[in-house]
Amino acid sequence: MIFIVKKEPNRLKTLIVIFIALGVLVGGFVFYYLQMSKKFQHNNAILSEQLKEHQDIEKKRLEQNAKVEDVILKEAKSCVDLIGQEKIQSIKIVKDKLHIVCDWDTDIEPLFIRYGVLALVKSTPENIRISIDLKFIVESNYEA
Question: Dihedral sign, CA of 43, 45, 49, 54?
Answer without folding.
Answer: positive
